[in-house]
Amino acid sequence: MMPGPALSVVIVSWNTRDLLRDCLASVAQHLAGAEHEVIVVDNASTDGSADMVAAEFPAVRLLSNAENVGFGTANNQAMRVARGAWLMLLNSDAALADDSVAKLLRRARAHGNLGLAHCRVRFPDGRLQHTTYRFPSLRLALLEDLGLYKLLGARAAARLLGPHFDQESERDVDWVAGVFMLLPREVFERTGGFDERLFMYGEDLEWCRRIRDDGWRIRFFPQAEIVHHNHASSQILFGDGRAALCLERHHAFLAERHGKLVAAALMAVGLTGSALRCAWYAARARLGGRRADAYRAMQPSVTATFRTLCAIAVRRR
Length: 317
Description:
alpha/beta, 2 domains, five-stranded mixed sheet, 19% strand, Spore Coat Polysaccharide Biosynthesis Protein SpsA, Chain A
C-alpha cells in the first residue's frame, strides 16, 4: 500500500456553493507546497455544491450524502477514510488567507503531545473572531456573567479569562471552535471524533473535553490565520435560533459533566447576570451620552439572550 499524504483537508458543506468554491481555491493556492488531499462531504445540498466540486475541482474526493447528517457526523465520515497523517478540519465558509497554515502544520508536528492546533480567525473585514475558550464552569460564570472580573484588576482577570480574550499569544487553551482544527490522525483514532448525537453546535466543546481527558494538549497559534464568514450553513438552517442552541449545549455539557445541581446553579447565575445587563443597557441608553447609541444597539441582543435563558430554564424544570 502506498503511503498517504502528510495532510488530509476535510471540508463539510451544506448549501454554501460559492463560499465552498472560494474555500477550495484558497486551499489549492496556499497549501500547494504541502503534500495533501482534500475531502469534501456534501450534506445533501440543493444549491449545486456537489456538482460544482465535481466539475471545477476534479482532484477533490467528494462524498455526497443523501441527507444532511450533521456537522460532526459528516466530519467523522471523512476522517475515517482520510489517508493523511494529520487531519485539518476547515469550515466551507472559511478560507486560507496565506501560507501560514502550511507553516503551522510544520510547527505543530514539532510539538510534543499536541492533540489539536487552532489558528487565529478573522471576519472578511479584518475583525477578530474569538474562537478559543475555557470550559464552562460555575467559577467562570460568576466572573463573566456577573462582571466580577472587573474587581480583580487587569492582570488577574487576564489570567483567569485569558484564553477567551487573548488572541495574540501562543498558548494552551481548553477548547476551540470547530471552524479550524488541525490534529494528528492518532487523536481521532483514540477519541473517536465528534459525538454524533450532536447534529450541530456543542460538538466542538464536547470533543475537545475528551481530547483533553485523553491527555492531549490543545494549543492556539496566532501565527496562522484564516478568514471566516461565520455560520453560513447554520444561518440557513437555524436562523436566529443559533444562540439558543449554543446556550442549551453549554448547559447540557455542565449537567453531564458536573451534575444537575451545578448546571442549575450556572443557570441561576446566567439569568441573574443577563437580567442585570438588560437593566444596565436600558439605563445607559436612556441616560444618553456619547455611548448611548452603542448601548441602544446592543439592547436587542442582551434581551434575546435573557429570553433564551428563561426558555431553557423553564424547559429544564
